[in-house]
Amino acid sequence: MEASARCPSTHPHHAPKMPHHRVRFSSTNTVYPLPPPLRSRSSSPTSDSAEPEQSEALPSTIMPFPFLSPYEHRRWHLNNEKSSPSSSWSPPTVTLSTTMPPPRPLSGGVNDLISLPDSGVPYLVYDLSLHPSTISTTLHKIPSSRLREPAIYPPRLSVTLVHPNLPWSFTILARPGSPYAYVSIADIFAFLYAALRINATANEFVGLPTDDLMRRVAMAYRRRYERLWRRDSPATAAAAQQEQAEGLKRVDFLLGSTRFLGIAPIPGRADVWQLQTT
């Protein structure tokens, strides 16, 4: 289904103060497959009836990167092909390091690789609106074995993440039959990609508490597909049309703050961690 949503009126006898927020809604979830030899147990479930604070579990996967490439100024298409930099998009400047942080000791905590350093510059550079194969690093090299480390110490069978802008909580489960019985760093990224590609429903959109939030979510949706139109390429034009037609997605509720910063513990909630983005 495709539709446009109107902001709710602040008074029953007055028209809405804000114009229509033109967004589309689709019942078909599109998750671009992770490259082989990833092993995926099933496709992502739909969520037409998701409610706030609902916890969901999606299949976990392992990304087969021999090394993550050093961070550079670049753009990625949805078909995962690298293109030249765009003057309309300026990623943050970072300094490459030649050393890698050691894994977090078993005394407890988030793996240092996905914990925001004191410098404020994350070790992994990833836009959550893009495919996980676009992950790069501010370190010299990161072997794939680092991504298979536990995301949380001591290792856990499940990890629940929340974000202040999202009305959903997400539970990542360790994969049955895996040689390691815990949630890995790779599992975190594969899950977040699949979970945030799920289509948002009209009820979730109009259920936002303010007109301003509706406007900002609609703007994030528009910018997500419009950035592809800025490329002079038939392939990217087709990708932009496809993204627009697929409609509003959960990633748009991040309001454009899709750059991954890390995962942090939440005081008083021992089994829940906060996803940090900017």
UniProtKB/TrEMBL annotation:
Residues 11-24 have a biased composition (Basic residues). InterPro entries: DUF6699. Residues 83-99 have a biased composition (Low complexity). Residues 124-265 form the DUF6699 domain. Residues 1-63, 79-100 are annotated as: Disordered. This is DUF6699 domain-containing protein. It comes from Favolaschia claudopus.
